[in-house]
Design a protein that fits this description.
It is a single chain. This protein is mainly α. Helix content is about 70%, strand content about 0%. The chain contains 8 helices and no strands. Helix 2 crosses helix 4. The chain starts with a helix and ends with a helix.
């Protein structure tokens, strides 16, 4: 199954609208629609890992499942073991705590990158 189909199936199964998913992902509704319709529109995509994670969070779907759908041939190597463990931990947190954790992680990354 393609990642675009996976996105749509997840959204429909959870009874969410494209508008709601777009808001949760921080993108416009037309952008979200392109996420879902990419294959049908003949658009080949090289998905960014950050976009895959953002989509999974917007759908309240497991990040590792999204990774497997987005990178089917290389799912095992798409992320390090530590990154997958972090993604699973983030999935287990309620949305407000997840947002706070992401801010802390981003700040720590930026601090380390500037050293």
């Amino acid at each position: 199954m393609s990642f675009t189909r996976w996105i749509k199936e997840q959204r429909v199964a959870k009874g969410m609208t494209t508008k709601e998913c777009a808001r949760r992902a921080g993108v416009s509704q037309p952008v979200w629609s392109r996420y879902e319709d990419g294959d049908d529109a003949g658009i080949a995509r090289d998905w960014k890992r950050s976009t895959v994670i953002k989509i999974a969070h917007a759908l309240d779907a497991p990040v590792d499942e999204a990774i497997q759908a987005a990178f089917p041939r290389d799912a095992a190597n798409a992320f390090s073991v530590e990154a997958l463990e972090f993604a699973r931990l983030m999935d287990s947190l309620p949305a407000p705590r997840r947002s706070a954790m992401l801010r802390v992680a981003r700040s720590a990354y930026e601090a380390l990158a500037s050293v």
